[in-house]
From TrEMBL, chain A:
It comes from Agromyces lapidis. One of its GO terms (molecular function) is ATP binding. This is Energy-coupling factor ABC transporter ATP-binding protein. It comes from the Bacteria. The keyword tRNA-binding does not apply. InterPro entries: AAA+_ATPase, ABC_transporter-like_ATP-bd, ABC_transporter-like_CS, ABC_transpr_CbiO/EcfA_su, ECF_ABC_transporter_ATP-bd, P-loop_NTPase. Residues 4-225 form the ABC transporter domain. Signal peptide: none annotated.
UniProtKB/TrEMBL annotation, chain B:
Keywords: Membrane, Transmembrane, Transmembrane helix. It is a multi-pass membrane protein. It holds the Pfam family CbiQ. The chain crosses the membrane at residues 21-52, 64-83, 95-113. It comes from Agromyces lapidis. Its main location: membrane. This is Energy-coupling factor transporter transmembrane component T family protein.
Length: 226, 197
């Protein structure tokens, strides 16, 4: 498993601190982050692959400083966004999965084989030549996950990946997340998604207010939000 | 280009995109310069015959060519009125042939193949032009068409729900704001997928 280190990390968007002196060391297989809107959980997740650079403090992944060696870190860390529409770049499903590998400079046969295997794994083979923007919400989120995993990252960070989905599609996407061998950091409002995680962090006003196994941590969060 | 590709194994599908692009450019130029109605008629038949080996569904082909017929329904009478029937027929044949050839290309060529072809074309100029970046820009431009269409559709629905159907401001402001937000998110997604230089 990768080691993710937050060392006295702070960030703000103006006057209000959004992350306030957070220090954490994450080495577990599956880590959940919960918190109310504006609690700083998404900003914390975005720091793991350098989408947000902290104004003070340091974030490291396997000893690599994310601020200075972001490109190397992003080769290890895949990121799944809330709205898959914002993540899809190419017109068809197969082309979007293949797009991730363009920067990996693999031989064409190897790249094609990886794309087909990934499409198969996520049940997207039958949709491979369909226009990506015409998929259902659940299919789009599976495509977003496939497009990340085709590069075989060591760690996957997901920011509310099921928030925009109906119950059935949310369950389908959650099942795929549960089956991942990769280390996983998931920000979510859907607490049942985190029930069998190894660790859950509760954020409030930019600070960590609970950090425990799911049962006590989620109980603390439920008490916090009333 | 926006997801109209129809997979297949025909000779037209398997021909390299660069060759198809070159032939398309030459054919459209020749048709544009051709003034003889007879020659254009022959070209129209030849174009129709090119679709046969591709084995494309008639509905998909019609979907690509039909929009130009709507334009011609207005343009041909005007041209006939001011320049005569021969000029009108020449213009109509030129446009239909050009659109049909372009449709044959887009229906049989995936966008990635077009991007690769563009990058190959730009390779001799790599000292001055970053071919990868041009390819990515083209891909994003193509991707943004349905994204923007969705934004406009949603904003139009919201405007109607608020009873502000006639208001330009109620259309323009949210569309521009959401388009800029979408551009930000797309940029973030590209960085996350390793396109960060």
């Amino acid at each position: 498993m990768s080691r993710i280190e937050f060392d006295r990390v702070s960030h703000d968007f103006g006057a209000e601190p959004i992350v306030d002196g957070v220090s954490l060391s994450l080495t577990e297989h599956r880590v959940g982050i919960v918190g109310a809107n504006g609690s700083g959980k998404s900003t914390l997740a975005r720091m793991i692959n350098g989408l947000v650079t902290p104004k003070s403090g340091r974030v490291e992944v396997d000893g690599l400083d994310v601020a200075r060696r972001g490109r190397e870190v992003r080769r290890r860390v895949g990121f799944v966004f809330t709205n898959a529409d914002n993540q899809i770049v190419m017109p068809t499903v197969r082309e979007d999965v293949a797009f991730t590998l363009r920067r990996h400079k693999l031989p064409a046969e190897d790249a094609a084989a990886r794309v087909e295997a990934t499409l198969e794994r996520f049940g997207l083979t039958a949709l491979a030549d369909r226009p990506a923007h015409r998929l259902s919400g659940g299919q789009k989120q599976l495509l977003a996950l496939a497009s990340v995993l085709v590069a075989d990252p060591a760690l996957v960070v997901a920011d509310e990946p099921t928030t925009l989905l109906d119950a059935r599609n949310a369950r389908l996407v959650a099942e795929h997340f549960a089956a991942l061998e990769q280390q996983l950091v998931v920000v979510s409002h859907q607490l049942e998604l985190l029930d069998d995680f190894d660790r859950v962090i509760v954020m409030e006003s930019g600070r960590v207010v609970a950090d425990d196994e799911p049962l006590p941590a989620l109980a603390a969060y439920r008490a916090l939000i009333g | 280009m926006i997801g109209v590709f129809h997979p297949g194994d025909s000779l037209v599908h398997r021909a390299p995109a660069l060759v198809k692009l070159g032939l398309l450019a030459v054919a459209v130029t020749v048709v544009a310069l051709q003034g003889s109605l007879l020659a254009l008629g022959v070209a129209a038949v030849a174009t129709a015959l090119l679709f046969l080996p591709a084995g494309l569904p008639a509905r998909a082909v019609w979907g690509q060519i039909a929009p130009i017929l709507w334009v011609l329904a207005f343009a041909v009478p005007v041209q006939w009125l001011f320049a005569g029937w021969e000029a009108a027929a020449t213009m109509a044949l030129r446009l239909v042939i050009a659109v049909a050839l372009a449709a044959l290309y887009t229906l049989t060529t995936p966008v990635t193949a077009t991007l690769d072809a563009m990058q190959t074309l730009l390779r001799p100029f790599r000292r001055w032009i970053d071919a990868d970046r041009v390819g990515l820009t083209l891909a994003l431009a193509i991707r943004c068409v349905p994204l923007l269409a969705d934004i406009v559709r949603e904003v139009l629905e919201a405007r109607r729900a608020r009873g502000a159907e006639g208001s330009i401001v109620a259309l323009a402001v949210p569309v521009i704001v959401r388009a800029l937000q979408t551009a930000d998110h797309l940029g973030e997604a590209l960085i996350a997928r390793g396109f960060d230089d």
